[in-house]
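Lab meeting minutes (informal)
Scribe: AK
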Amino acid sequence: FEWSMEAYKKDSDVSDREAMARRLGMLSLANLNPCVKEMQYAVRGPIVIKAAELEGELKKGAKLPFEQVIKANIGDAHAMGQKPISFVREVIALATCPSLMETGTGFSNDAVLRAKEILGSTGGGSVGAYTNSVGIASVLNHVAEYITKRDGYPANPADIFLGTGASGCIKNIMKLCLTMDADNKPGFMIPVPQYPLYSACTAEFNAHLISYFMNESNNWTLDRAELERAYEDSLEHCIPKAICIINPGNPTGQNLPPENIAEIIRFAHEKQLLIMADEVYQDNIWTEGGQFTSFKKVLRSLGPEFDDQPLASFHSVSKGFMGECGLRGGYCEMTNFPQDVKDMLLKLISASLCSSTSGQVAVSCMVKPPTGDARERYDRETKAVLASLKERSVMVHEKLNAIPGIKCNPLQGAMYAFPAIDLPTGAIETAKAQGMEPDFLYCSELLEATGICVVPGSGFWQTPGTYHFRMTILPPKDQLEVFLDKLSQFHGQFCEKYSDVSPLGS
């Protein structure tokens, strides 16, 4: 559509400025917010869209090279068949429909007591009422008790707010760091490989993404020298405001040791950076004898010298043993935040009124297990979930490394593997000739040939010249075995197919 002011004004008695305003004010792709157009979110990108189309074709009876699509692209535990924890669903059911407490329908006494406690902190005794913007008071107390017990250092409910999953909390903390100065964009130090939430938010907020590379050769740990390089390189482009760490790692699956965490804290303190610790996989530790150590615990252990170091820590009901992704519940603890900054945060989140009350109830169940008649079943169910995930993590790691041309670091934690794949030159050149990343070509052909849906490593960013894909360990064990067998066969065929390819016809 070609538009000119002259043509528009022939039939309109308006000024030049109004003519332009009317045209540019009309919502279209051409005048859409450029930050929104720049956003990318790989875990729901074109390969995933294609997987859904193939699923639809199979349902209609189409004959494809496979009988089912195996989705290993996203950490959605219940979609992969994981069963909910009974206590969680009981409490949510009772809080949502309190009359069930009077019918004697077999709910545990623990669930009844928890629901009553939570409802006692809500307006009108109903989860249908708005809560305080920071969350239900009793749930905030439960979170503070949990953090205190986990770390051995006191936590204050006044330093905590509940949100729409960890993602909503992360976005609100990032908003605090934004500036309106185009010449001094805020910068966020993001680990590479990274979870696409961070690159998407950085683009949405018109901020600068400062990439620092994880050390793949050392189980995806962090090097101080790399942090220094990334920081120094960014100074001509932005004002660095925060460093983000995902631990345990997504997509990389590492579990950082305390000494590595301390080094990051010292770096942030020296550079006057806010630390954003994404710790949503803290219950997903798979190495024998391995333990999760929070940034809050290490920060407090470093002594009073670091009492002015701000830290925002995040947790969520979407991962761990619960996998309640759709309930959208999470929390943020703000350590060493000035009170006036917390006041501004309260103002910011107040504009959204409150997060989902069902999600808030789920947070309570995550951080405060039952202690009475529901405890035995709760322990049995949670241990079964975590044991099964651990078994799958070991199997995935061993079978990936048994495939020639694929190498995967140990899965120390989280729910993913991020194996490196050796690709033949022909595949790399073919992909570049088609304007796509080589691992995108690999994952696209993997889907078309086998029905396996994974995410290209380029969607998470990676060290230049390396290629990966991310897969979850969430599909049932029998599906994972089929997945890994098909992957092994496909990888050999793919490499053979492109071993002698010259895409330019030379």
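Next up, CB showed the second protein from the same session:
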Amino acid sequence: LKNLETSDLWAAGFSGASLRPRMDEGKRPAFGGEAERIGTRLDEATDEFLKETKSCRALQVPPGQDQLTAMEFVSYLGINLQLEPELTWIAREMLAAPMPPQAAMKVSKAGVCYFHDLINDYYTIEHPLTQRYLKVLERQRLDLLCLRTKPSVNGLLFSQPDMLFHKQFRNLQIPCQSCGVMQSTLKCNQCLMSFCQSCADSLHKNALGPRKNHTFLTTACGSLCSTCAVKKPQVFCANCEDYFCFKCFEDMHRRGNRLQHKSMLVSVSDGDIIEPQKRCEECEDRPAAFACDYCLDNYCVQCFWKCHFNGHRRQHTASKVSVVPMCNQCQNVRATIFSEQTQELMCTECFTMLHAKGNRMLHLFMDSMDLLILLERLDPAFQEHMRRARPRVLWALSQLQGWVKGIEARRNFKKRKDVVLMIQRR
């Protein structure tokens, strides 16, 4: 689709397929979701586009929402939450990634997202970063199979579909999914994650991409009693759908129909902790991520393994120093990914902008939301194990695919043979 006027796009209500010239104002039919609902006759090109979007990858803002969430990117990338919940971080990163400098995102009246290539001046419904994240997804799926052969690291992964928990159990009180230390006080409606206040600010407050527009709900720990607005909530009433302290709950539910209301206790914590940012004592440049329990020094991720590669230091253990490590580039946003080629902790915005063109577009990355798991995965012994396991897993997959194709071929051959015999018997 090339050289389209914006007015032609909005006249059709969509973009991404070849469209006919705009019709007269007085004879223009309804388009998009409204046309599908009332069954009016559509322009032929628009009708073809509607059929195309039903059979291909397309992002669409769900009804009742004003922006995309991580669930839409889970479906867009084809991630199965029941079989591979460990890979949902890729969908969250794609949600948070800003548009490359040469692209812009637009949303049609029906909620379908399409993208404008500003250099070549054409429109498409494929996200400009799709191929990068599909490549990362392919690599992480392979690594996930390899991890099954390394129980010491595989056991650290959280293998539950946490996105579904957030949608099904709104009042589930869990620790912060960023630092893992504090009780969560906020839930992001787009990331579908729970954060404490400091982690939410470090990840969203100074973000330059879509994260800056994300909306939040308060959890039980982040709320106050809905009546006195002084004490922390201790009871959640399912019928009132509100939080109460013990005293206010008893005062409001001691008589009448409210006696039959169903309620549950909620556990909250008023504790708070602030970890000062420390610098790596080896390179004196990057923020420290770990403290060696034996050396009593602070290290960033790279320097820790440089200093603990050989000898007795291989037996040293480490503790978290920085609860929320900041991006090595901007120093303003919490680092969420680790670049495998440059060996840097970076935020999604900086990684996208620095890898927008050239050979850097081929660079891969890993999740760094949990630094302790990242440290285990960067262990040279583990890296060597993965280097040897990947070819074996790929060989097993190719053998399995050949075996399945053989079964299918034999089944089709039997069908054709039965048809031929049936015709011969006639």
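CB comment: The longest helix spans residues 380-425.
No objections, moving on.
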